[in-house]
TrEMBL record:
<comment type="similarity">
    <text>Belongs to the auxin efflux carrier (TC 2.A.69) family.</text>
</comment>
<dbReference type="InterPro" id="IPR038770">
    <property type="entry name" value="Na+/solute_symporter_sf"/>
</dbReference>
<protein>
    <recommendedName>
        <fullName>Malate permease</fullName>
    </recommendedName>
</protein>
<keyword id="KW-1003">Cell membrane</keyword>
<dbReference type="GO" id="GO:0055085">
    <property type="term" value="P:transmembrane transport"/>
</dbReference>
<feature type="transmembrane region" description="Helical">
    <location>
        <begin position="12"/>
        <end position="29"/>
    </location>
</feature>
<feature type="transmembrane region" description="Helical">
    <location>
        <begin position="101"/>
        <end position="124"/>
    </location>
</feature>
<feature type="transmembrane region" description="Helical">
    <location>
        <begin position="267"/>
        <end position="286"/>
    </location>
</feature>
<keyword id="KW-0813">Transport</keyword>
<feature type="transmembrane region" description="Helical">
    <location>
        <begin position="41"/>
        <end position="59"/>
    </location>
</feature>
<keyword id="KW-0812">Transmembrane</keyword>
<keyword id="KW-1133">Transmembrane helix</keyword>
<feature type="transmembrane region" description="Helical">
    <location>
        <begin position="171"/>
        <end position="190"/>
    </location>
</feature>
<feature type="transmembrane region" description="Helical">
    <location>
        <begin position="130"/>
        <end position="151"/>
    </location>
</feature>
<feature type="transmembrane region" description="Helical">
    <location>
        <begin position="71"/>
        <end position="89"/>
    </location>
</feature>
<feature type="transmembrane region" description="Helical">
    <location>
        <begin position="236"/>
        <end position="255"/>
    </location>
</feature>
<dbReference type="Pfam" id="PF03547">
    <property type="entry name" value="Mem_trans"/>
</dbReference>
Length: 322
């Protein structure tokens, strides 16, 4: 029952903020241009600041190197997740404008806003070092290959022109630059002045609430009927809640012993984090790339709602694995 109530407690704030954006848009508080303005603010200012501060807050050089085994497991699971997601895109013939979002839903998760409080509630503070494994891999995956896949899935640009050359501007985005700078500071053991760290922290905290308000705005414009389970949405959600946990469990079970070489609490953390809902910023990224924003909003909202059911199931299965 702990997993059930924790999943509800982790999900309700997200749904309430989405509902707030929905209501305020319907009430006429937000102009038509407001969603686009939020998108620019998040991608170019708030996200880089938030990623920079979060990496330096949750990681140290010692923890980064000491958790190398868990990093290897979760990184391999992420790579395999990309391979499966690419295969699903081809088999299902997912159309352009959705492909990047589809792959990100399967592979990358909302680790900080949902994954962190969930992990602490289920396994306590002792699990924090192991949670950081998932956070590091997920952050690097999201803001390198994940973000590039969405940016490169612009349906207004011909596929042939995109194949002719690699656009480094799509890879070196502000969030990625923020992450790279953070790792430079981390590995060089450079201390950020407290006033600057606080400023960046405050700005970074805007990301999640603004992204969720944006989801509410898109839902308001599209109507609640836009939440549905078509072929592409259903497949992406199956990938997120079934395929990724299955890949993680398989790696742990068949790497030696019942759970490989990892402590059970670390293995359980990796499994739970592999089943966390999709990133709230996916509609923002889709908007910036002229992608299918309604599809991105649909899968983010649906994955958040389904999370209440999925995570108690995953938690109840953990004793059977270890």
């Amino acid at each position: 029952m702990t997993g059930f109530f924790t999943s509800i407690e982790s999900t309700l704030p997200i749904l309430f903020i989405i509902a707030l954006g929905f209501y305020l848009r319907r009430a006429g508080w937000f102009a038509d241009s407001f969603g686009g303005n939020i998108s620019k603010l998040i991608l170019n200012i708030a996200l880089p600041a938030g990623i920079f501060v979060s990496i330096l807050k949750y990681l140290t050089r010692d923890t980064l190197f000491s958790l190398s085994d868990g990093l290897a497991y979760f990184a391999l699971a992420t790579v395999l997740g990309y391979l499966v997601a690419f295969l699903m895109v081809k088999l299902l013939n997912v159309r352009r404008g959705r492909c990047g979002v589809f792959i990100n839903v399967i592979v990358n998760a909302n680790t900080i806003f949902i994954g962190l409080p969930l992990n602490v509630a289920l396994f306590g503070e002792l699990s924090m070092p192991y949670f950081l494994v998932c956070y590091v891999v997920n952050t690097l995956s999201t803001w390198t290959l994940g973000a590039w896949l969405i940016a490169n899935d612009d349906p207004t640009v011909s596929a042939d022109s995109q194949k002719r050359g690699f656009d480094w501007k799509k890879l070196l985005t502000p969030p990625i630059i923020g992450a790279l700078l953070a790792f430079v500071f981390l590995l060089a053991n450079v201390q950020v002045p407290s006033f600057l760290n606080s400023t960046l922290g405050y700005v970074g905290e805007l990301v999640t609430p603004l992204a969720l308000i944006y989801v509410g705005i898109v839902l308001s414009d599209a109507g609640l009927k836009s939440i549905h389970f078509d072929k592409d949405a259903s497949a992406a959600l199956i990938g997120r809640f079934v395929v990724m946990p299955a890949i993680t469990v398989t790696l742990l079970l068949f790497s030696g012993g019942t759970l490989g070489t990892l402590p059970s609490i670390e293995a359980h953390t990796l499994i739970v984090q592999s089943a966390v809902p999709a990133l709230a910023v996916l509609p923002i990224l889709a908007h910036a790339a002229n992608g299918d924003v309604e599809y991105a909003t649909n899968v983010v909202t649906a994955s958040t709602l389904l999370f209440v059911i999925i995570i108690p199931i995953v938690n109840s299965l953990l004793p059977l694995i270890a």
